[in-house]
Every structure is written in C-alpha cells, then in structure tokens.
C-alpha cells in the first residue's frame, strides 16, 4: 500500500507558517515513507476561492521544496460529491432541514436556558412530506444534515457513542458523537461545506494518512462516521499543534502577516522557514537544517507537543544566519552568479563574507564594497583621517596574502603607538566605509593593493 497524504488548503488567502507546518508534515511523512503527496485545493467555496491564491500557494510550496505528485481542485469534482450525497440520502443518512439561521439561534438559546447542550435537536426529522412541500412552496430550500450514528433506534434518544482512533501525534483519541450536532454537509444553495468533499476525496484518492492541525480533532469524529457511512475504512489521522504569534493569537490566512510570500520577499532561505515550521513546538531543538533530505531524517511526528507553539520571527533570523554561514561555495555559486558575482574572486569572496550575512543578497553589497566604489563614503574624524592617511603609507608591497593585514597593522602600531579598536576601526572605515564586516585580513586581500591605495583618506 502506497502511503498517500494530502495538503488541502482553501485558496482563500496566502498560506502562512502555520499552514506550512501542515504542508511540510505531510510532505516529510510522504518522503520518509516513499509515499505520494497530493496538493488538493479545497475550493468548494467558489465565492471566496481565487485562482490567484491557488497559484500563490503552488509557488510557495515549490519555494519550500515541496513538489506535489498530483494537484486536484475540488471545484472540478462536484459530480463526485453529488454521487456521495445520493448515496447518503438513499441510506437515510442525509436529511433535509429548513430552519433559518435565526430559528437555529433561537433554539440554541432555548436549549442553553434549559441547561441542555446547544446541539441541534433533529427537529427536521419530524417534518412530514406535506410540511416540506409547504416550505418549498414558500420558496425555502433545504440544507442537508448528516445523521450521526449516536442512537440505538430512536434518533431523538441519543446515547454516548465513542469514536476512537489512535492519532499518529496525540495518541489514543475519543470523540463522543452524541456531544455534537449533525453536521450540515450541503447548504441551501446546493454548495458543499468542507466535510463531505473532504471525506469523499480522501476515499476516492486513496488517502491513507490525514495529517492536519488539531483544530480538526472534533471534525475527525464526525468524519470517521461519514467514512463508514460511505462504505470506507477511515484512514490514519495525525493532528499537530497549531502555531500562534508571539502574543498567542492564532495565525490568519487573511492577515497576510507571516505569509510565506512575505518571508520569501524578506529574503529568508526556504530551509530556515522549513526548519522552524517543522521543529518549533516539538521535542527537538529548533536548529537550522541545511536541506530537505536532512529534515526528512530529523522529522518525527511523535515529538510534536500537544500545546500550541509560539512562532517568533526573530528565530528565523538566527536560523537564516546559521544556514548562510554554513553554505558551501558550491551551494552558493549559482546564486552568486545571479548576483553577478563570479570569476576567480568569487570563492574566496564567499568564504570571507558568508559569516556576515543576514540575507543571501547582502552578498551583492559586500561585492560592491570590495570591487567597486564604496556605497557609503568613509566617515572619519579629522584625527582618525590623518592617522589612516599615514597608516596607508605603511602598506606592505604586493603580492598580498592573509598575513598582510597583520604585518601592516603591526607596522602601524609601532609607528603610531595606536592599538586595538583605535587602530583597527579607522582602517576598517577607510577601507570599507562600514563599521562592521568580515575579517579585515580577508577583505584587504580581496580589495587588493590597487583599490586599497585608491582609498587612502
Ligand atoms: N481546507 C481544510 C483546512 O484548511 C483542510 C482540512 C483537512 O486537512 O482536512 O483546514
């Protein structure tokens, strides 16, 4: 049996780091088990679903390194859901309800006032054909509810009905089907809510493992009942904890904050985003994992904790730095070329500057400092300027190597009596226009005798 998983986003917004946790959990699970990964757009809500978002999700997943084995759109599969509806109707498991939202709300309040659980009382089951015709004559259309199997003979006398599953992440789970309302599967206008298309597709597409956020745990109880009503064994479920912002709020697809697109545009490495999305809120320490193959190795669903995990974007900066500092020239080369950084200098340049990068593209800034005009003019006090002017006269003869900086500064120290920061900083500023940066021993060689002399203050 091929392990088959799916990531099922609704294309109603951009995916964020929390959705990425779901996507990656499925992807890594598939990779680890030689399985199949389906990207399935839950776009039954045709009003709110947009092709633009579906496209953006595909781009984001690709950037993260997720390559779906197949892509499905629920909006193209309505005929399949219609068959499932027919099957449930035939079995007497889908019944027509005519209540308006206001009527339902009134009933809910009444039940609460009577200290009854605010679940749907199945009043529509009592409707006669004549009642229904009357509603229809008034122009009312029914919505359709799934009759949960939580009673013996009389649907108005429910009894505790436990559904169990052994969750891949949370361990043994129990949901009581008598504690919930019969779920609405089809709306008045004939459109489908998420539940039925999801279960129908999971059956039809041979999904063996459903890995998703723990906001779906209760749904799972009802969905297991629907799987069975449609004649299928439910798949294995795994519900991971959700991510929140640092202040504990849920992440929203609509807010656009922390969207994968915005993190990409901010220049983060996909592996820093992936490492954090997968390792945060688990028993593993959050660390920069260099590539997807290594993340597959490290991935372990059972290590995911049960409580929500806070996502702190500052952690991304740390991971990003670490990844860049450890990126070999071979791995960086093509990307450097895209920044017009090539030739013999490219490798020593990369090795010298990678330890100072926050973002990969900062490399262009250092290339410019080393090879071109200084983007920022050196800012030196008159005294430091005079000192640096004299120091430049003591520069050793070419050819230069890594030792040159030491030879030069020792000479300068002897001649001027300056040492430490008061010696290095004016030289750094004169050479680079910056107060921070890579080792001067490396920079001096990269800048080379000719350009260095041109920078004498
Ligand atoms: N579209 C649903 C969601 O984004 C999918 C849930 C599921 O994986 O079944 O929450």
UniProtKB/TrEMBL annotation:
Q: Name one GO biological process term.
A: glutamyl-tRNA aminoacylation
Purpose of the protein: Catalyzes the attachment of glutamate to tRNA(Glu) in a two-step reaction: glutamate is first activated by ATP to form Glu-AMP and then transferred to the acceptor end of tRNA(Glu).
Q: Motif 'HIGH' region, which positions?
A: 9-19
Q: Which PROSITE patterns match?
A: AA_TRNA_LIGASE_I (PS00178)
- A Pfam short name: tRNA-synt_1c
Assigned GO CC terms: cytoplasm
* Similarity remark: Belongs to the class-I aminoacyl-tRNA synthetase family. Glutamate--tRNA ligase type 1 subfamily.
Chief place of localization: cytoplasm
Record-listed E.C. numbers: 6.1.1.17
Give all residue intervals belonging to the Aminoacyl-tRNA synthetase class I anticodon-binding domain.
382-455
Coiled-coil region(s) at which residues?
none
Record note on quaternary structure: Monomer.
Q: Would you say which domain of life the source belongs to?
A: Bacteria
**What is this enzyme's class at the first EC digit?**
ligase
**Localized where?**
Cytoplasm
| Binding positions (ATP) | 253
Listed under catalytic activity are: tRNA(Glu) + L-glutamate + ATP = L-glutamyl-tRNA(Glu) + AMP + diphosphate
Which keywords has UniProt assigned to this entry? Aminoacyl-tRNA synthetase, ATP-binding, Cytoplasm, Ligase, Nucleotide-binding, Protein biosynthesis
Instruction: Indicate the segments forming the Glutamyl/glutaminyl-tRNA synthetase class Ib catalytic domain, all copies.
Output: 3-317
Short motif ('KMSKS' region): ranges: 250-254
Question: Taxonomy-wise, where does this protein's organism fall, top ranks first?
Answer: Bacteria, Pseudomonadati, Pseudomonadota, Alphaproteobacteria, Hyphomicrobiales
Q: How is this protein named in the record?
A: Glutamate--tRNA ligase
Molecular function terms from GO: ATP binding; glutamate-tRNA ligase activity
């Amino acid at each position: 049996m091929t392990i088959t998983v799916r990531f099922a986003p609704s294309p109603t917004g951009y995916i964020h780091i929390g959705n990425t946790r779901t996507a990656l959990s499925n992807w890594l699970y598939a990779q680890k088990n030689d399985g199949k990964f389906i990207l399935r757009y839950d776009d039954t809500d045709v009003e709110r679903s947009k092709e633009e978002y579906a496209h953006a999700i595909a781009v984001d997943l690709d950037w993260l390194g997720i390559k779906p084995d197949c892509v499905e759109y629920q909006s193209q599969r309505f005929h399949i859901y219609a068959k499932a509806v027919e099957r449930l109707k035939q079995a007497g498991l889908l019944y027509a309800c005519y209540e308006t939202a206001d009527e339902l709300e009134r009933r809910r309040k009444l039940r609460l006032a009577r200290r009854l659980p605010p679940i749907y009382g199945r009043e529509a089951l009592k409707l006669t054909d004549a009642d229904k015709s009357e509603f229809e004559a008034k122009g009312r259309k029914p919505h359709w509810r799934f009759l949960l199997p939580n009673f013996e003979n009389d649907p108005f006398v429910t009894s505790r009905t436990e559904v169990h599953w052994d969750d891949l992440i949370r361990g043994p789970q129990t949901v009581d089907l008598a504690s919930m309302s019969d779920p609405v599967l089809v709306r008045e206008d004939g459109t489908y809510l998420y539940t039925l298309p999801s279960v129908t597709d999971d059956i039809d597409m041979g999904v063996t493992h459903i890995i998703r956020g723990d906001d779906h745990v209760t749904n799972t109880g009802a969905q297991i009942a629907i799987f069975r009503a449609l004649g299928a064994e439910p798949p294995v479920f795994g519900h991971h904890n959700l991510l929140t912002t640092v202040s504990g709020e849920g992440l929203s697809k609509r807010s656009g904050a922390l969207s994968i697109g915005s993190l990409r545009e901010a220049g983060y490495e996909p592996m820093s985003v992936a490492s954090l999305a997968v390792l945060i809120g688990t028993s593993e320490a959050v660390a920069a994992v260099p590539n997807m193959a290594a993340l597959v190795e490290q991935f372990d669903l059972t290590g995911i904790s049960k409580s929500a995990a806070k996502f702190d974007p500052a952690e991304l900066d740390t991971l990003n730095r670490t990844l860049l500092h450890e990126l070999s020239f071979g791995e960086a080369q093509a990307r450097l070329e895209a920044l017009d950084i090539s030739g013999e200098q490219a490798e020593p340049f990369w090795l010298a500057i990678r330890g100072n990068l926050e973002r990969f593209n900062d490399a262009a800034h250092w290339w410019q400092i080393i090879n071109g005009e200084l983007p920022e003019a050196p800012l030196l006090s008159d005294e430091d300027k005079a000192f640096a002017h004299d120091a430049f006269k003591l520069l050793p003869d070419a050819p230069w190597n890594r030792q040159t900086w030491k030879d030069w500064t020792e000479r300068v120290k002897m001649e001027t009596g300056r040492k430490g920061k008061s010696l290095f900083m004016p030289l750094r500023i004169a050479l680079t226009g910056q107060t921070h940066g890579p080792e001067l021993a490396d920079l001096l060689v990269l800048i080379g005798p000719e350009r260095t002399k041109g920078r004498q203050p």
